[in-house]
Design brief:
alpha+beta; single chain; 18 helices; 5 strands; 5-stranded antiparallel sheet
């Protein structure tokens, strides 16, 4: 009976959210619920780590900023995800599949699958997961997604709580230093510029001076790691990255650094932290301004709704004339047209890799009717949705 109830919850979650859901018992997969046809499941890369997360309600952020949540109930585990705020790029998919020999058609279909999943902020994913946790375990804890904190305070609070751990006792000695501690300003400015190539080169060249260091030197370097993490986190928030996402990333790396005294692992964690923040800053910096970033985030988060320029303006506390003129000036595009273009791009993914009807897709994307959806699609793509689907099917090689 319990199996049946949990299967029903997972099925309804997937159908309602348009996000993959998985049900485990004793860490053995019972069933996966996908709203889409999936060519390759990226979850296999993170399955072990996610299933081993502590506490009944938890989350996981991948290196490319996909979000997963975990809800535990007795011997069962429910995993929701992946979801994310922004579109994933073809380069990200290629890197994801780097160890898998696949043709370009496979990469295109995997890209379409990932970008067709509903976009959701980490905060909203955790709120949804908290509801399931309340239903199954009769427990509710909103501490994971409490946003009522000032930007610097959220970083200071998390870091200072961790620094109380004895592993971060400051040792007043400079006899041993990592190479990466020698030029703080250059490193921070490189990350702030979102220069991934330079940071990757930096991490590849990074070598330990001596692997046989004593306990006090390990403590000092762990403390300096925390200092760098704090500085880079503040840069990330100033660049426009959501404060809660930054806070969650901080918590992740602090947990990892607390649990090891292996100097080589500390080095790997540091490299991973540098690359993660640089990629995130690069994504934010690719847009021309913080307001444009916020507009994009709002559209991506509400792609399934009937979005209007008035609603975006109200959500961002600016007037409609101002936001329309500003968007046009910065991008050269009409904001209303841009909203529809984003919806049509999502529709193209759905038409390519799902068998959902035009009515289902039009409802999912917030169009007033199937005819409205079809006419809008033809306006932007020069063909009807059915014509597009037939064209994609004829070239799909079986996917």
């Amino acid at each position: 009976m319990k199996d049946s109830k949990l299967h029903t919850i997972c099925y309804l979650l997937s159908e309602f959210t348009f996000i993959p859901v998985r049900l485990y018992k004793n860490n053995i997969l019972l069933k996966s619920y996908y709203p889409l046809n999936i060519p390759y499941d990226p979850f296999v890369l993170y399955e072990k780590e996610i299933l081993n997360l502590s506490t009944k309600l938890n989350y996981y952020i991948t290196k490319r900023y996909n979000y997963y949540s975990l809800i535990k109930h007795e011997d069962y585990k429910i995993v929701i995800g992946p979801t994310r705020i922004n579109e994933i790029t073809k380069e990200d998919i290629r890197e994801l599949l780097i160890n898998i020999s696949q043709n370009s058609e496979f990469i295109e279909n995997t890209l379409s699958f990932v970008n067709s999943i509903s976009k959701m902020s980490l905060e909203n994913l955790l709120k949804l997961s908290s509801l399931i946790n309340l239903l199954l375990n009769n427990e509710y804890d909103d501490s994971l997604f409490n946003t009522n904190k000032e930007k610097d305070l959220i970083i200071n609070k998390i870091v200072n709580e961790r620094i109380k751990n004895k592993d971060y006792e400051l040792i007043n000695t400079d006899k041993y230093n990592y190479k990466y501690f020698n030029d703080e300003s250059t490193l921070i400015s490189t990350i702030a510029s979102g220069n991934v190539d330079k940071v990757l080169k930096f991490t590849h060249e990074l070598n330990l001076l001596d692997s046989n260091i004593n306990e006090s030197q390990i403590k000092q370097n762990k403390h300096r790691f925390v200092t760098y993490l704090t500085l880079i986190s503040r840069v990330a928030i100033k660049k426009g990255i959501d404060q809660d996402i930054v806070g969650n990333i901080i918590n992740r790396y602090l947990n990892e650094i607390i649990q090891t005294n292996d100097i080589h692992k500390i080095n790997l964690i540091f490299n991973d932290m540098l690359i993660t923040f640089t990629y995130f800053i690069k994504d934010v910096s690719s847009s021309s301004s913080p307001l444009i970033n916020k507009i994009n985030s709002y559209i991506n988060a509400n792609i399934t709704k009937n979005i209007t320029v008035n609603e975006i303006a109200a959500a961002l506390y600016v007037s409609r004339p101002y936001i329309s003129a500003y968007f046009k000036k910065e991008t050269g595009l009409n904001l209303s047209n841009y909203i529809y273009q984003n919806k049509i791009n999502c529709a193209k993914n759905l038409l390519s890799i799902t068998n959902r009807s035009l009515r289902e897709i039009s409802l999912y994307l917030g169009f007033s009717s199937t005819s409205h959806f079809s006419s809008t699609f033809k306006k932007y793509e020069g063909m009807t949705p059915n014509e597009y689907r037939q064209k994609r099917t004829s070239n799909s090689c079986g996917f």
